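Listing S7. Sequence submitted for prediction.
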Amino acid sequence: MEHVYGRELTSSGPVYRELHMEGERIVLHFDHTDGGLALPVGSEQLIGFQIAAEDGNFLKAEASIVGNTAQVWHPEITKPAKARYAWTNYTEANLVNGLGLPAGTFRTDASRE
């Protein structure tokens, strides 16, 4: 939350904080969810995520919102290690917080390839 003119206002959409593994899925945790993670009005499916195993070969991921997390997976990746969101040029991505503010681009590993 930001303090602007003496009022607390949300200044950001969801910001990636950390991940943990649940079987063949990566569970992503966020700050600045303000009312929970959501899809924009009119969207039916969460898009914009990719995951990879340790080999670094990223594939388009299936994704869903579960509580205050996003879960991502791909049927060909049984041991996922990293994820990224809206990482490529001209990516369609639609994760927002409860106020409708969009999540920014992120990658869960330190590599910048």
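Caption to Listing S7: primary sequence and predicted structure tokens for the chain studied. The CA atoms of residues 36 and 68 lie 5 Å apart. The two ends are 32 Å apart (CA to CA).
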